[in-house]
Design brief:
With 182 residues, this protein is α+β, with helices and mostly antiparallel strands. Helix content is 32%, strand content 24%.
Length: 182
């Protein structure tokens, strides 16, 4: 399955599109920062490349992956968000990772709402999780704002099995009952 070259989701402030080669510098910046400790980092640029290519490969092979978040006004790469479910993952996830310079401005919420809609409507997912470290208060707050509830502790597959995570989530019916609120 190939990625449609014209796949774009537009929100008020963002363009969400599949991973593209020009996104790598932003991706590497995100993964080098201490805040990436919740998403598998911090790692050097070379290790970032492997994760970046895995996401591009997910788009190519499965037709989905995390979207690149692009600021409409500046064209700057702000982060990644969207569906992710590698082999052995504890469920169908919509996750997020935002550059530190873009944190606290509502971009992750705006993008997560759009990509959850897309995952439920386009991919046909019936359940979405968010795997979050218990000390990642901003992501927990975002999951709650999205209407997800705590489901308990869980484990990620290798090489992330040492991460302490809990699952937050909701069903498609819960999401739809919630409407556009939040």
């Amino acid at each position: 399955m190939s990625t449609p070259s014209d796949l774009r989701i537009e929100t008020e402030r963002l363009i969400l599109r599949p991973t593209a080669p020009e996104d790598f510098d932003g991706w590497a910046e995100l993964m080098a920062h201490d805040s990436s400790r919740f998403i598998g980092g911090p790692v050097p640029r070379e290790a970032s490349w492997r994760g970046f290519m895995a996401m591009a490969g997910s788009w190519s092979m499965l037709g989905y992956g995390m979207f690149s978040m692009i600021d409409k006004a500046s064209g700057k790469w702000l982060g990644r968000t969207g569906p992710w479910c590698p082999e052995g993952w504890p469920g169908t996830e919509v996750g997020w990772g935002v550059l530190p310079s873009a944190m606290g401005r509502g971009y992750a919420h705006e993008a997560a709402v759009a990509t959850m809609d897309w995952a439920f409507d386009t991919l046909g997912w019936t359940d979405i999780i968010h795997s979050i470290a218990p000390d990642n208060a901003p992501s927990i707050a975002l999951a709650e704002r999205l209407g997800s509830t705590w489901r308990g502790p869980s484990k990620l597959p290798s090489p992330y099995e040492h991460f302490d995570i809990a699952l937050w989530g909701q069903t498609r019916e819960q999401w739809r009952a919630r409407g556009a609120a939040g």
